[in-house]
Design brief:
Helix content: 25-40%
Radius of gyration: 16 Å
Bound molecules: coenzyme A
Number of strands: 8
Strand content: 25-35%
Number of helices: 6
Order of helices and strands: EEHHHEEEHEHEEH
Largest sheet: 8 strands, mixed
Length: about 190
């Protein structure tokens, strides 16, 4: 594997592209300040758009780096910014990375994240050459569980009461999943 970084990706309904600081207004309004979105995430709602701007400024600055894989998800229809998806902790020697994603509530339940993750996995395995992609989610986060399952990430175990959600203060079980290169290509052939 050799790092390739962010490439603009396209699916039927979506464009996955690098971040710009000027995305802050839409990101803040659509999901980065919503406690329902951050419920099981490692961060809390931004509260102030300045936080979003500072974050996106950093993401824009790092977006040219070969080991960074963080995309803005844009709905082609109306050119609306609706969410984000990333391969985090991408390690060239291990040939491994961890998937992360979130999206505005208004667009949940339409198969959008399944569409985005399928394309990110295709890019990761077919173009970059990862050996393994991991995913983890709160056991009760059924939507995320289904997205990963549908994209072929196999259940590997549960870490009991492993994570305390910063948004709610509740402790939750964390489900670990993963897909190997050979599994991806086997699924792609079927
Ligand atoms: C998790 C999330 C990304 C799911 O995205 P999505 O685009 O709504 O998911 P999809 O529409 O592709 O759904 C895939 C499947 O999950 C089901 N699903 C989605 N949300 C669900 C929910 N809240 N409860 C039950 N099922 C759900 C869909 O019905 C679909 O099932 P099907 O294929 O059997 O019809 C989205 O809800 C979200 O952004 N949540 C907040 C952030 C988050 O939790 N991120 C993940 C952290 S690990």
């Amino acid at each position: 594997m050799q790092h390739k970084g962010i490439k603009i990706l396209e699916t039927k309904r979506l464009i996955l592209r690098p971040w710009k600081e000027s995305d802050a207004e839409e990101a803040f309004a659509h999901w980065m300040n919503d406690p329902d979105v951050t419920k099981y995430l490692t961060w809390t709602p931004h509260g102030d758009i300045k936080v979003t701007r500072a974050l996106l400024k950093m993401w824009e600055r790092e977006s040219g780096e070969p080991h960074i894989y963080k995309w803005a998800i844009v709905l082609k229809e109306g050119n609306v910014l609706i969410g984000d998806i990333a391969v985090l902790r991408a390690d060239e020697f291990q040939e491994r990375g961890t998937i992360g994603y979130c999206m505005g509530k208004k667009w949940w339940g339409k198969g959008i994240m399944t569409e985005a993750l399928s394309e990110v996995l295709r890019y990761s395995f077919e173009e970059v050459g990862f050996f393994r992609i991991d995913g983890e989610h709160a056991a009760e986060n059924i939507g995320s569980s289904r997205v990963m399952e549908k994209c072929g990430l196999t259940y590997e175990g549960t870490r009991r009461q492993y994570f305390r959600c910063p948004t709610t203060g509740e402790r939750v079980d964390i489900v670990e999943r993963g897909i190997l290169r050979e599994e991806y290509f086997k699924n792609a052939k079927e």
